[in-house]
Amino acid sequence: MRRLSLIMGLALVGLVVAAAAVSLVWTPYDPNLVRPPDRLLGPSWSHWLGTDRMGIDLLSRLMVGSRTTLMVGVIAVCLAIVVGVPLGLVSGIRRGWLSQLLLRVSDIMFALPALLLAILLVAVRGASVATATWAIGIATVPVFVRMAHAATLSVMAQDFIDAARSCGTSSAAIALRHVLPNIAPIVGVQASASFSSAILAEAGLSYLGLAAPATTPTWGRMMRDGQVDLFLTAWPALAPGLAIAVAVLGFNLLGDGLRDQLDPRLREFR
Amino acid sequence: MAPRTRRQRTLTHGLTVLALIFGLTVMGACAGRPAGPDSPTLKTLTVGATAEPDTLDLTTSDNAAIPQLLLYNVYETLVKLDSEGRVRPLLATAYELSEDELTYTFRLDPKAHFASGSPVDGDAVVASLERMRQALSATIQAQMAVIERVWAEDSHTVKVELSHPSNKWLYDMTSTAGIVIDPAATDLANQPGGSGPFQFSYWIRGDRVVLSRVGDYWGTPGRFDQVTFRYFSEPNAMNTAMLSGEIDVISDLTSPSTLPMFADDDRFQVLEGTTNGEVVLGFNHARAPLNDLRVRQAINYGIDRQAIIDTVWGGKGQLIGSMAPPTDPYYEDLSQAYPYDPERARQLLAEAGLGAGASLSLRVPTLPYATGAAQVIASQLSQVGLTVVVEELDFAGRWLPEVFLNGDYDMTIVAHVEARDIGKFADASYYWHYDDPTFQDLIARADQAGPSEYLDLMRQAARRLSEDAAADWLFLFPKLVVVAQGITGVPANATSLSFDLTTVAARG
Amino acid sequence: MAIAQAIARRVGVFVLSLLGATVVVFLIVQALPGDVAQATLGMGATPEQVEALRQRWGLDRPALVRYGSWLLGLAQGDLGQSYLTGQSVSGQIAPRLAVTCWLVGLSMPIAVLASVPAGLAAAMWRRRWQGAVISSLSQIGMAAPVFFTGIVLVVVFSVRLGWLPANGYEPLLGPGGLDLAGWASHLVLPVLSLVIVQASLLSRYVRNGFVEVLAEDYLRTARAVGWTKWRALVRHGLRNAALSIVTVIALQIGAMLVGAIIVEQVFALPGLGSMLLQAVASRDLPVVQGIAVLLVVVVLAISLAADLAYVVIDPRLRSREA
Asked: Mutating which of A228, A230, A232, A233 best tests the B interface, going by the most B Cβ atoms within 10 A?
């Protein structure tokens, strides 16, 4: 059961990654080539998922869209980790006014709902995948600050830290040698969860027309453009919707599986 | 232990009660009321529209959503255009033009009165016209600038003196600029007051405006007790509302690819009419490489306009080839001037020295026709070796300041909906920066020419634009209206800015 | 005493965070390109007309002065006036806020109610197929984007079956008096879309809360003193689950508002989301700022409430705070 989560998560994520990788070298059709005679075709041998109202092959567009999905997730989560984890670490080890200030600033950012931030940032910088990625990344930073802070506190409370302290180890060394390795697994689990949130956030923004232009294939945008023709043919909206669900499910399961592997207490009572 | 358990119990009980209330309400709702706003006692009409107005004050804004709602329905004008485009009396039973063509005399209908009960008299008309001369709306102010003097000769006669003869002014008077406002109405932004068959009832912002019938209307009374204009920012929401019977009319279908689902369903009828809306792929003439005729022609050859109509606008729309729709008297069919010919496009680009990989920006407002057409154009021009970088900009926030005012673009797509707007190309400071002395001369001469010569000069001007590939006229907007069976009299042609309710009726 | 101090400290932090957030919001809003005067007057306007309108709205004052006067107004509960309509921002927000509040306020308790039995069942049957089914359903509910769920619901219940309106809104106390049926029928599908996502998410936390209790020593102790397994589970497990739920709600309130905004778009509901998008598009900055601050206040207030709820629910935190 536990392993099942991990295996299914890996399989689904693997599927998305594989689609993205294959799309770099091959797609069934050009994902941007408009072919008016082929518009709104249902699934067939020549078009496995059918075509949209531009006559573009949906499978090709989905494959290329998976690249955007993964890219948004990777960049947003990396941004959040690179900024958030050190802040959480420092504020957990040095408990002075600086750490309090950091936490407060992080809380203020946390209070700005991600979509509000994204709507405003998009209005300032223009609607694009890059802007959406930035907005999602910035909105995710406080999650990692909080998480790293809490994890650091619990590590710092343990005996071996006191031992290290008494041997004269510097704070920086403690952070790097003792705390970081101990919180790394939790960061990994959080990263997987945040990855799926980032995918959903980008899809939501694209759906609202606040991220990718029509010429950039992304799943959210495909849903936005496809839903209009829903009653003529469902696939242009259905296919990207399912793709989003598969990717999110994959990363959620992966996160769950990882956590179960790492959390000895839960394993004990399997 | 004990107090904590009690707390939990309270929490659980509270939540249960909440759920029960909601559950019961839902059950009540489903039982008591099938979907749909109609009730047998009131005759209602619900119209789906795309853009909600910010304000209901016609004098402050050019937003077309306001006249769509209020013109002829709530506010009336002295004279009105009929469906054939002729000037007809409305509040004025008759009008005369003096021999020097400078003074108009309007005789008001003595029966006419506002919804508030006070009469539409000379003073009210003069006050309205004065208000329009001071209007915040730049368009109205410009239209009324020709007025020299307005006065009421008696309670039923108004005279207007112009600074120079103008046929256009009377035409403008049939629209927003000519409405007569109830002098008692002070808060026009929220509480419009006019003399029409309907009066403003209430407004749920973000959702709908409701008009109700004026009980003692002075003319032919409105045929509905209540008319609701519902606003949808997403075409999909409007389509589903129509499909599930919550609205009776889609006043302007912005997703024509969905036409088959209405056309093939006998619950609905689709009306197709004409508009003045030329969808223009505009070039920035102030910049290389689009200041080069060969590049502009190459783009015209490289785009399959019929394919755009088929994919983006559901096969509806007309090829025009210049800045004149077929309803203009000087129209000529120029749509075949640049047939789709990718080979010729490649050749012209090579002559102009634009090799493969040359890149152009296409910055379009986030409107369905513009973003859709941009996608097709990017695909087609990539076939002739031009890389097109598409950017979608929100209209007011970025397109206006960056593209329209600062000219920071190579190509853009906007529908120009004003009537007879070919003259815009004569203004070199306008956002296309098209500066062609030949064209400017033709337009200037046409303005002063007699009727027959006028048509000839205008024809030459339209041809000049086409020869010079001043832009790429993608297509002419159709007016697509979806109406539920049983509703009659919905105007198909966009002759005015109004969604004119005076002719609409429900059978049965 | 200790509790009072803890509460006072948290309220203080709340106020400071709010102040910080106003700065952030004001700065971002100031950076918006384009301006409302141009946006209002459109393509036909002359530069002089635009300038006159800017002056009329006080846009020519320095940014610091505008921030100061805005903050002063905020302190008195005045959000300023909309450029476009001339009405007070708070007056305009109120009816929109009501829609969003109903949406979130109804879906939250329903999601909590649905998640407790689902989570409990999943925990009890965690080694059986029933548990696997519940867990899988919750995974799927979490993974499906809320707009996707919403569209599917509309297609099934409005267009195909014709049971419920596809979209739109009817105020509870509208111009025609109390309209309970109209109000509720328009809210069912949007609320359901949100409930599916939120209940899926919550049920997983609830399940984990119960699983932890099942694994802990005190269950053994409880059994030893003669309680049944169910009684122990309900007593200890509910508290544990309540803690998880409070945590998740505090963490998720932002995400929930986001979900609500998207759901409003799908169902054409006149809530805060559509108002925000419209105000940003027309550059009606006082309205944008007003909504932004309101959202921040809501999020901060809920996390404050969650903090206080911890203190009440969990006695350990109380002593730690002292």
From this structure: A228
